[in-house]
Amino acid sequence: MASRGLESRFEHLSVTDENDGGEGLKKTGLKSKVVPKSQLSQTSNGGNLLKMALSNNNPAPVTTVTVPSQAAQWRGSNAPTSATSPPRKATSTSSRPSDELVKAEQKAPQIYVMPQPKEFHLGMFEIGRPLGKGKFGRVYLARERGTGFICALKVLHKSEIQQGKVEKQVRREIEIQSNLRHPNILQLYGHFHDSKRIFLILEFAGKGELYKHLRRENRFPEWKAASYIAQMAAALKYLHKKHVIHRDIKPENILMGIHGEIKISDFGWSVHAPNNRRQTMCGTLDYLPPEMLKPGSGDNWYGEKVDLWSLGVLAYEFLVGEAPFEDTMIMTQRRITRADMTVPSFVSPEAKDLIKRLLVLDPEKRIPLDQVLLHPWIMKHCVKGERATQRESKSSGSKSSLEGRE
Ligand code: ATP
Ligand code: MG
């Protein structure tokens, strides 16, 4: 497997190699770069879900997104140079100071259209401050030089991906995430690679990890938790409609937009990967649904209902500050298989009711997402179109995050 090499595995994605003699730099035409569906489905090895995900009538890429202030302010600004230097030198010769990136991310939101060039390459981006580091990727704030579009550039080293034997997951992450358009799902605008690295051009999540907010606040007030759960339910409904199962819903995989809105991230690591189970098992068990713990249950046992269970765990953790089955490894497993948990008395009866309807052992009996959105706890706290942050800052006046774009 590994001997085939990543380079060849990614060949079919027809991305620009930075070392292609600068051909990418010379191209001027702006066109959408879309990987043909026929090519994508060839790549999936037993990836029925992937085929299903892609067989949906996906519209041409929708590129209108809400991002932190961009080109207009950029061009108008006369930002001074500062000590903030980019972590890596970009290959282009543009002389704009990179610390403007930091300023740009702090400005007011606006609707902006992501340019869709035929091919992306590193020279098109000015690299800003590091946003974080994952198992395989390092993520940087970045700005597309031509338009000033602010994004996050995730850099994956091919050697690390190969060593970690996650080539397939990375490819699926790219294929699936780039076909999703929803305000509560982190968008993948495009990707490219050079001889050593793969670059993912991601929507910039201005407020970072939800996990950090939760740890800082210990637990969320009910109105905020309800708003987050409503946004999660809306995003999951959209995913399930496209036959995509996230399977790894937890606070660590949720980022927050500049208005404090939910952005689900981390696709592909476990979405359609039966052979991925061991890796999942090595991580936290807290969010694993009981049907995924059953021994000998084959590869067909999991369905979209696993995300409902995780949504229940999430609601609990938002309100209580810790996951419902948090315990020793053995005990967590045992308690999950019995749905053995207690909701503390400070949690409202409505919230408790929703948690109990989600944390049901029989996947078929879990409350469906449509009903989650209509549940009294959600109805009580979430006026349609209202977001957590709009309560904090009434002036933001943005569009409902509960409505997907299709
Ligand atoms: P894993 O390797 O398990 O996926 P991870 O999710 O932490 O771990 P990455 O997705 O590589 O790894 O991201 C690393 C960190 O960078 C994140 O935890 C987050 O803090 C930050 N980050 C990633 N993507 C973005 C983004 N689009 N906008 C803002 N910050 C981001
Ligand atoms: Mg991640």
UniProtKB/TrEMBL annotation:
Q: What is this protein called?
A: Aurora kinase
Per the UniProt entry, the Enzyme Commission number(s) are: 2.7.11.1
Q: Which lineage is the organism of this entry classified under, starting from the top rank?
A: Eukaryota, Fungi, Dikarya, Ascomycota, Pezizomycotina
Protein's GO biological process: attachment of spindle microtubules to kinetochore; homologous chromosome segregation; meiotic spindle checkpoint signaling; regulation of cytokinesis; regulation of mitotic cell cycle spindle assembly checkpoint; regulation of organelle assembly; response to mitotic cell cycle spindle assembly checkpoint signaling; sister chromatid segregation
Q: Gene Ontology cellular component?
A: chromosome passenger complex; kinetochore; spindle midzone
What the entry lists under PROSITE patterns is as follows:
PROTEIN_KINASE_ATP, PROTEIN_KINASE_DOM, PROTEIN_KINASE_ST
Q: Show the active-site residues.
A: 248
Catalytic activity of the protein: L-threonyl-[protein] + ATP = O-phospho-L-threonyl-[protein] + ADP + H(+); L-seryl-[protein] + ATP = O-phospho-L-seryl-[protein] + ADP + H(+)
Determine if Kinase is one of this entry's keywords: yes
Q: Which UniProt keywords apply?
A: ATP-binding, Kinase, Nucleotide-binding, Serine/threonine-protein kinase, Transferase
Signal sequence extent:
none
Record carries keyword rRNA processing: no
Report the Pfam families cross-referenced here: Pkinase
Domain annotation Protein kinase: ranges = 125-378
* Top class in the EC scheme: transferase
Biased composition of type Basic and acidic residues is found at 1-15, 97-106
Organism this protein belongs to: Pseudogymnoascus verrucosus
> Which residues lie in Polar residues bias regions?
38-47, 54-96
